[in-house]
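Run log // design_07
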């Protein structure tokens, strides 16, 4: 008797029905030997053809190259299970309490390394970074699922709901410890202005507007209002590895040259394309910047209309801007923060000045006020407490003052 490979006639009929159904929908392929590595590369090519942003593509490539291909690239796509995904994510995760060990560099465990793949050395990562790995795999496998290559996506569900990782808590909301007080921000701006550095005006605009680094580096003079009261955010300068930039996007749309590793792009969301008001000190900083740049334009200058540029007019390197900020913070003796943390200071300034949360949301470029509340919950505490105190004073000022009851008497 010829064996069919099925446990029963019923199982064989069910398998046949499934294959016929897939054939009828036009998605049938002999996918038994397709590997995850093959599909991930195919998916990356599809993402590039679809016009994904340079930064997004760079992240996808990094996650595939550093995590998924070395660990599971050999695995047959249809055999991939949730346990495989959990095992890789667990290996990449850096426990919050790991202390000195958190900086240890470790390989993905041999048990999940791909056959024939060289496992790259990867540091243990934070929960938010590992969640990014999962989302990349989820997107790739969702595309495979839509094409009928797999029935179930094993990477679905947030990282803290995956079996085996339920102990993992989401990254805590920032507590504001990395944000400067207004007096500290003022001290920094006084220091950099006194130093007379080329980026002093950039840091001043950052402190008063909360612009992101790429938005600062992509700001053009033509984006400013004629009356100088504000500007439109239209451009973003991103810095990624050259080999991760599609060939058709490598040349500058303004000068036609290639700025190695730097690409201009538009804001990634409608909220990011916004109008931002300019405070008086920021306006003064821009007037100073225009005058200083006029001197540089007397020499050979490649004009990109950039507000902040190199001495010869080329785009700045965003990573270099961050490095200069860190150097200046150290030099003036203030607590070390990132350039991005000046957004926190700007948010604090706006809220302390009584600017409504909906307006702060639009200035910072968040999609909705609830995003601002979630990201800057720590900053909202003091203004909220002050508002509650003011509201309760409407009642207490009409009451007879009473002395507080000593704890011993109350007991």
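design_07 sequence
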């Amino acid at each position: 008797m010829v064996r069919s490979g099925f446990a029963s006639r019923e199982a064989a009929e069910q398998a046949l029905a499934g294959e016929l159904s897939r054939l009828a929908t036009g998605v049938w392929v002999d996918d038994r030997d397709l590997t995850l590595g093959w599909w991930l590369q195919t998916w990356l090519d599809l993402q590039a053809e679809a016009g994904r942003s340079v930064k997004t593509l760079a992240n996808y490539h990094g996650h595939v190259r550093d995590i998924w291909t070395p660990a599971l690239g050999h695995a047959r796509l249809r055999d991939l299970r949730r346990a495989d995904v959990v095992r890789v994510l667990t290996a990449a995760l850096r426990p919050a309490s790991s202390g000195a060990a958190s900086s240890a560099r470790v390989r993905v465990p041999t048990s999940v390394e791909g056959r024939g793949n060289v496992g790259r050395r990867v540091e243990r990562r934070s929960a938010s970074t590992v969640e990014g790995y999962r989302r990349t795999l989820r997107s790739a496998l969702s595309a495979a699922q839509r094409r009928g290559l797999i029935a179930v996506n094993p990477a679905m569900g947030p990282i803290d709901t995956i079996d085996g990782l339920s102990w993992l808590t989401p990254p805590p909301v920032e507590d504001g410890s990395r944000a400067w007080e207004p007096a500290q921000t003022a001290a920094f701006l006084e220091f950099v202005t006194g130093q007379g550095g080329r980026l002093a005006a950039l840091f001043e605009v950052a402190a008063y507007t909360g612009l992101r680094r790429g938005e600062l580096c992509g700001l053009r003079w033509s984006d400013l209002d004629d009356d100088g009261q504000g500007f439109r955010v239209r451009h973003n300068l991103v810095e990624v590895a050259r080999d991760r930039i599609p060939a058709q996007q490598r040349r500058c749309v303004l000068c036609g040259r290639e700025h190695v590793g730097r690409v201009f792009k538009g804001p990634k969301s409608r909220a990011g394309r916004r109008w931002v008001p300019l405070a008086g000190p920021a306006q003064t900083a821009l007037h100073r910047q225009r005058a200083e740049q006029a001197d540089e334009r007397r020499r050979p200058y490649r004009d990109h209309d950039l507000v902040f540029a190199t001495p010869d007019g080329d785009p700045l390197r965003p990573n270099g801007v961050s490095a200069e900020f860190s150097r200046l913070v150290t030099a003036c003796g203030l607590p070390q923060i990132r350039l991005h943390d000046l957004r926190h200071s700007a948010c604090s300034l706006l809220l302390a000045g009584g600017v409504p949360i909906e307006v702060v949301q639009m200035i910072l470029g968040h999609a909705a006020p609830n995003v601002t509340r979630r990201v800057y919950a720590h900053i909202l505490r003091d203004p909220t407490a002050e508002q509650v105190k003011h509201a309760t004073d409407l009642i207490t000022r009409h009451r007879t003052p009473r002395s507080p009851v000593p704890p011993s008497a109350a007991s």
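The first strand starts at residue 105 and ends at 107.
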